[in-house]
Amino acid sequence: MMLMIEQITSKRGTRIRLSGELRFEHLDQVKAEVGRGGHRVALDLAEVNLVDLESIRFLNACEAKGISVLHCSPYIRKWMSQERSRPKDA
Fold first, then answer.
1. Residue 62 clears pLDDT 70, i.e. is over it
2. How would you classify the pairing of strands 68-70 and 3-10?
3. Are 7 and 37 in contact (CB under 8 A)?
4. Read out DSSP for 59-74?
5. Do 25 and 55 form a contact (C-beta atoms < 8 A)?
6. Are 23 and 34 in contact, with CB atoms under 8 Å apart?
7. How many other CB atoms are there within 10 angstroms of residue 80's CB atom?
8. Distance CA 35, CA 33 (A)
9. What is the pLDDT of residues 65-82, one digit of tens each?
């Protein structure tokens, strides 16, 4: 269960490239990177091959805050959509 994180900063903002498995135990580290990224941050998931439910919820929360989620696989995008449309527990 390994996740590599690379932060790429340019004039247009910060892209955080993730590679490997994005799991619950990595989220604090990813959140810290997002916090250091400034006001224009994007998460690049082109090399993410596995996620868990907590990561899907994190990615949805990022998008809700205006953080772009780029290059994610169709299964991740579909799961994100399904989770957004799922009724919340009361």
1. yes
2. unpaired
3. yes
4. HHHHHHTT-EEES--H
5. no
6. no
7. 20
8. 5
9. 999 999 999 999 999 999
Query: What pLDDT score was predicted for residue 38?
Result: 84
Separation between Cα atoms, residue 60 and residue 69, nearest integer Å: 9
In the chain, pLDDT over 70 holds for what percent of residues?
A: 97
| Cα Rg, the chain, nearest whole Å | 13
What length does the chain have?
A: 90
Whether pLDDT at 29 is above 70: yes
Residues 6+ apart with CB under 8 A from 67: 34, 41, 42, 43
pTM above 0.90, yes or no: yes
Distance in angstroms (rounded) separating the CA atoms of residues 13 and 26: 23
DSSP state of 55: H
Q: Which two tokens stand for residue 83?
A: 């989770």
